[in-house]
Design a protein that fits this description.
Elements: H1 5-27, H2 30-45, H3 50-67, H4 73-96, H5 102-107, E1 109-112, H6 114-122, E2 127-131, H7 137-146, E3 151-155, H8 161-173, E4 176-180, H9 185-194, E5 198-202, E6 212-216, E7 219-223, H10 226-234, E8 237-245, E9 251-256, H11 267-288, H12 301-312
Parallel strand pairs: 1-9, 2-5, 2-8, 3-4, 3-5
Antiparallel strand pairs: 6-7, 8-9
Helix pairs in contact: 1-2, 1-4, 2-4, 3-4, 9-10, 10-11
Length: 313
């Protein structure tokens, strides 16, 4: 069925909204861009939508897991505000990254555990970098390109198509190669790894819904099977990394691993074991700075149940 005029208009509006906001954040003076984004974030923080409810719920979950008790309401409110401001920072710095010089990026970035990455890349088997949605992974990707380890990653296809093309072009300007999350994606990633390259996968959210069950902050949920499956099929080294914003205007990566991907049982069992190991590493990363974990969507079965219950009340 051909799209209606209204449908086409909405797609065009989406395209111009995203690209227009990015243009403004990129070209405003940095203090003005940060102030504008912070204003929008604070407005969103005081809304009553699912993003606010989920951010509060996820912070409560992490804090309960960390401290063993219910967090203070004032602490939870303060960290929720910090979480929205951290997300605003992510958008500003991501929008401005394509126009920044290599020297500027490198001056504001450093990595703990660089030797883990260097050793893995030197082995020539390819490297899979598993990442949570923490801080600004794009800054990490840009830095990787600068040190000679360009990252290939995947992304969910956006609508309209021209928006996805723009998104890929923006990431390319940052030094990132993005391939669409479709039937051809696994082949591209396998070829990259077998050539000794680096693949980075954000894998703390199961976008497709067919992932592997893991224990994650006290409840079963699912993680994508991609990192474990690729490691087992290619023999690539699997490391776990997070890129934090701060201190100040800087960014820093924490690189850990490698995760043991030795075959110990059936393929399915090994994928499950390795994916659970990634989840445990992610828990440690998130505990370090829970307000920088950009998780605003339902992520556990209890989240979806709570939202369904709201709708029927």
């Amino acid at each position: 069925m051909a799209p209606t005029l209204g449908h086409r208009a909405r797609k065009r509006a989406t395209f111009f909204t995203y690209t227009g906001l990015a243009f403004c954040l990129r070209n405003l003076p940095e203090p003005a861009a940060r102030a504008a984004a912070a204003g929008v974030a604070l407005t969103m923080r005081h809304g009553r939508g699912v993003t606010v409810r989920m951010r509060i719920a996820h912070l409560r979950r992490v804090l309960c897991d960390t401290t063993g008790g219910e967090p203070d309401d004032r602490l939870l409110a303060r960290m929720t505000t910090q979480a929205f401001l951290a997300y605003a920072r992510y958008w500003v710095e991501g929008a401005r990254l394509p126009k920044l010089s290599r020297e500027f990026v490198d001056d504001r970035f450093w990595a703990d555990g660089r030797e883990v990455l260097d050793k893995a890349m030197a082995e020539g088997k390819g490297v899979i970098m598993a990442l949570p949605h923490i801080g600004s992974w794009e800054w990490g990707g840009s830095w990787l390109e600068h040190i000679g380890y360009p990252m290939t990653s995947v992304a969910e296809v956006l609508e309209p198509a021209e928006l996805f093309v723009w998104f890929i072009e923006q990431r390319a300007a940052m030094g990132l190669r993005i391939v669409p999350l479709d039937n051809d994606a696994s082949g591209v990633l396998i070829r990259t790894l077998r050539a000794g390259g680096l693949v980075g996968l954000l894998c703390d959210r199961d976008l497709i819904g067919n992932g592997v069950e893991v224990d994650f902050f006290g409840e079963r949920t699912t993680f994508p099977a991609g990192p474990a499956t690729l490691a087992l099929r290619t023999g690539a080294t699997l490391i776990v990394t997070a890129v934090y914003s701060g201190p100040g205007p800087n960014h820093h990566a924490v690189i850990r691993g490698p995760i043991d991907t030795t075959r110990t049982g059936s393929f399915r069992a090994d994928v499950s074991r390795i994916t659970q190991a990634i989840a445990r590493e992610f828990e440690e990363y998130i505990r370090r700075s829970p307000e920088q974990w950009h998780m605003f969507q339902p992520n556990w079965p209890s989240d979806f149940e709570a939202e369904r219950a709201r709708r029927v009340r």
